[in-house]
Amino acid sequence: MLASNQMNIIIRRGIHLDQVAWAGMQGGGNVSVLMRAKQIERKRRLIKKMERFPAKKIPVLDFDIKPEWKENKRQRKVKVSAEEEEERNILLKRWSTYTLFKKMEEDHKVKRLMTRQAKALQELEKISPPLYKEAIKIDPHIEFACRGPVQSLPRTDYKAPLGGFLSKQPPHSTDAD
After folding, report:
1. Rounded distance, CA 31 to CA 15, Å?
2. Among 142, 123, 124, residue whose Cα is nearest residue 133
3. Is the separation of the CB atoms in 25 and 39 below 8 Å?
């Protein structure tokens, strides 16, 4: 442990033992110890205040894109060589095959899990029918909503309501108007 006299010398020369507390402080060596202590205290109070009140999210209200921003004259005119275009096409094909194999792999995993689950349920039914009945019950805590058949033919006697359909796409989803 340093003596108080040695500590005063270290502080006067601008060398501080607590580097974390002094990190990010503005000013050179000519700032007094009291000024730096006040800076640190202000920062600590600010940090405490920020911890108590988390940052508020600002809602985005400006969805309109100016039509002149979508004009063709604003498009970048980049000349790509034939070799570069060929490389891009090859890369795009490789990416599409990669994503296809990833999707097929996930589908295979899901099918495997479903077959394992069905096999386990069959075994459970052989071992203990009451446990099987409990296992196949629908869990009331899982929220599930279905609005009707989505993969069926349209009704022939259905009369569409008057009026048109306005597609509601999220803003910035496509650049085409």
Report:
1. 12
2. 124
3. yes
In the chain, DSSP assigns E strands to none
- Report d(CA 4, CA 11) in Å as an integer: 10
> Could you tell me what percent of the chain has a pLDDT over 70?
71
Q: SS3 for 86-120, per residue? A: HHHHHHHHHHHHHHHHHHHHHHHHHHHHHHHHHHH
What six digits make up the tokens of 13?
């020369």
Q: Going by C-beta distance under 8 Å and a sequence separation of 6 or more, which residues neighbour residue 177?
A: 67, 70
Closest CA to 48 of 56, 36, 40: 40
Interval 58-93: pLDDT, tens? 777 777 788 888 888 887 888 899 999 999 999 999
